[in-house]
UniProtKB/TrEMBL annotation:
Coiled coil: none annotated. GO terms for molecular function: snoRNA binding. Residues 4-69 form the Nucleolar protein 58/56 N-terminal domain. Transmembrane segments: none annotated. One of its GO terms (cellular component) is box C/D methylation guide snoRNP complex. It comes from Collodictyon triciliatum. InterPro entries: Nop56/Nop58, NOP58/56_N. This is Nucleolar protein 56. It comes from the Eukaryota.
């Protein structure tokens, strides 16, 4: 049985293979130290593949789907492509660790890939997030930060439905009222 972990970042999707399949004790101090140390952490997972988003709009569309627990077509194609290779090599069952159980059930329903989401997976994803730039050699830390900042702003704007071309009159009027009260 092959164990994998899906990591969604602002720059794309990454698939990691779990080398050690036993569960991680979340509270064990030694395990926590192993997650912090890149050398020891690479004994637990390795990067299998990375699929970057094609554009900022594509990233926003994908992350909107992920936040709602829905599998985007980009993610579907990526997982189908990766697990088609894996099923041929390993010849067995594949288990995919995901952070969001709703996304896991969407993947399970759509692709018939067994998914799990538990504390052990969450700890692995925490370590992956910490060391992500080291795993993806062609990515610089500043590139990831820019992608996170840009996607964060776009996602927030989309969720709040804020129009950058429009003045928000209620806020402007409230500030003016506060200024008048301060003067008077």
């Amino acid at each position: 049985m092959a164990h994998f972990v899906l990591f969604e970042s602002a720059s794309g999707y990454a698939l990691f293979e779990r080398l050690k399949s036993q569960d991680i004790a979340v509270t064990d101090k030694e395990v926590q130290a192993a997650i912090q140390d890149y050398g020891r952490f690479t004994e637990q997972v390795i990067l299998k593949s990375f699929h970057p988003f094609q554009s900022a709009e594509n990233a926003l569309d994908n992350i909107n789907h992920v936040s709602e627990g829905i599998m985007h077509e980009t993610l579907r194609n990526y997982l189908e492509q990766e697990f088609q290779k894996t099923k041929g090599k390993k010849g067995g069952k594949v288990v995919l660790g995901v952070f969001d159980p709703k996304l896991g059930s969407s993947i399970q329903d759509g692709l018939k890939i067994s998914c799990e989401s538990n504390d052990s997976i969450h700890e692995l994803l925490r370590g992956i997030r910490l060391h992500f730039v080291r795993f993806v050699k062609e990515m610089k830390s500043s590139d990831l930060e820019k992608a996170q900042l840009g996607l964060g702003h776009s996602y927030s704007r989309c969720k709040v439905k804020f129009n950058v071309n429009r003045s928000d009159n209620m806020i402007i009027q409230s500030i003016a009222l506060l200024d008048q009260l301060d003067k008077g």
